[in-house]
Amino acid sequence: MDTLNNLLAGFQTAMLPVTLMYCFIGVFLGTLIGVLPGIGSLAAISLLLPVTYYIEPTPAIIMLAGVYYGAQYGGSTASILLNLPGSASSAITCLDGHPMAQQGRAGAALFMTAAASFFGSMIGLALLVAFAPAIAELGLELGSAEYFALMALGLVAASTLGSGALAKGLAMVLLGLLLGVVGTDVSTGVQRFTFGFNGLAEGLSIVALAMGVFGIAEVISAVNRPREGQLRDDKIRLRSMVPSRDDVRRSWMPMARGSGIGSFFGALPGTGSAIAAFIAYAVEKKVAREPARFGKGAVEGITAPESANNAAAQTAFVPTLTLGIPGDAVMALMLGALILHGITPGPLLMVEQPELFWGLIASFVIGNLMLLVLNIPLIGLWVSVLRIPYSVLYPAIIVFICLGVYSVNNSSFDILQVALIGALGYAFAVLSFEPAPLLLGFILGPLMEEHFRRAMMLARGDVTTFVDRPLSAIILGVTVAVLAWAVCRRTAAVLKRREALRPAG
Amino acid sequence: MTDKNYRDLLGGLLVAAIGLFAALYGQRYEFGSLQQMGPGFFPILLGIGLLLLGGAIAAPAWRRQGKAKPIRVEWRTGGLVLGSVVVFALALQTLGLVIATVAAVLLASLADRSLRWPGRLKLAAGVTLLTVLIFVTGLGMIVPLWWHF
User: Fold this and answer.
1) Residue B17: inside a domain, yes or no?
2) How many structural domains is chain B composed of?
């Protein structure tokens, strides 16, 4: 009953005209940048982060969240029409979505992805509502040692479960933690790594870091990237979007399985919607009666991953809002946005800021309904957006980035930070390091250091406290297991490669 | 298969260098003890970790022989984009938002060779108009539009 009352109160918050407007702006921009290849939701959210200074925290976070799950809807549009993923989590949708478009069934594919996205979101949301209060309650029992262990787990998972090399991912995490050290030390007041710049006393600006790594570095790599893929000229009409009865019949089970898989992986630290979509596709292919249909326009190949990545986008909020531990870089930015507004997410968030928490939950329902309208009747709008050339977009992106960063502290020094971080980010991108773990480490760094210090102080400098406390020991055990599994997987891959090379050499 | 040779070598060295720097520079802050950690404890620990990881990235790449995919760096694009950010930063408070935006857009647009000068000028005008409308008119941001001496 409590939950129901809270939800009703949440809807009251979310239905305020101002909140509705920011929710709409969020999902609209989310779809827009999801559709456009070359700008991800990370870049868009970092771009909007400074704007949130000008509005209340609740509508601000509702807008940012809207960008995130809106991008999950939009991403599939480019995948289907251009065979070019608009965002990482819809890359897998290319495999069967584009063949459907080539068979003249683009309309049906777009309709089914929107429907599957909505389905997945609602399942993920239901699980979020069901589990969040319990997890928050559990969070109250946790001490500093447990928090430290949980953050370690999140960081290790984020850097090892990605596609890149293990050591490189871990290096980016540590680098992020190190960048988080810059500024005034909370416990002693000593200024660290500021090199005499007053502008660094409060630490590197999170906005500058996010924009440098995901904005500027991304623009540099994208400007002259060859653009393939031709947009077919046929118009998508509403009538062509009606899926066949067969499409619908085939999709129920994949959508249910996809939502389950997505919800699970979304809530885990370190695994995001991209991994969820990938696993959902792999599972469908395995359980399918005719696996040969996959890759040739099987509708299950788009509905399963699309419901999975949307479900994951919802459940990803569970650890962020209940424990204050973000699972991926986007969630880290959300956390950053809350901290900028003076709100510390954690187990008490639901009790202290019920309006924010339940308002956000209610806005997910409203935002997803808006997205359904935006992505089915208004699909023509997004198809025409796909025709905007990147050469027109990126100069505007650069100016928006600069002004956005400037607006945080009215400081030109912060814009120069962006240039420096952008150069560093580009260098790491060229050397194929993944940037997302860096941001996660940066956000968690100060929290982790504080909990580490506190845990050690309470245990009088005895490191065994981390394994003496049962919960912390279990979490650290899982962390070690994840790490060991990643090492094994990589070693196995290397051995296999050697095996394959031997007869040839 | 062995296409990551120089990338990993260079990347590993870069990571190790950053780690070494952090560990050395961190010496100037009090290290403290496990029970009472000083401000230097965490950064030095991280620096050592980075140094080791950098080695772990670079060492296998050094031993591994094979044809390496060349590292492609977009020097020109990178220079122009970063330059446009720096120009914007320097011009904003001195010459005002309008000139800073026009200059940044023109400089950045040089990176894409498919644009011609009339297109660049139109683009600069459009972006400037949009910027002023969104940030100054819409969000009420306080920033000088023009220079003031």
Assistant:
1) yes
2) 2
